[in-house]
Amino acid sequence: MAHSFGDAKSFEILCEELPKIAESVRPTFALLFELYMVQNVIKNANWYLTNAVMSIEAMKNLDAHMHVLIKMIQPMNQQIVRSFGIPEHLVTAPAAQDFQAFNDGPNNGETFRAKL
Length: 116
Prior knowledge:
By secondary structure, this protein is mostly helical.
């Protein structure tokens, strides 16, 4: 119940705040917001179907719509990540940057030179 309340409150606040977001980024926020809400409905599909709020066909259409939204957002993914201002060295896993150098030293909790 708490999650449902949180989801409803998030939806309410985002609906109120979306018009206040800068026009230059509003379309991106709108897509991310829509994807978030669609995923919440899909996540709670059992409730929506059991209570006859949505039909199976509508749920299938919603799943297809989610994939469309993901394809629309995908070209913006790097720009979205950069907008958070996270330093590049923190965005990717250390092993992805230089796996040989990563494996040449201690890895903060990773198994070092594990013997199989």
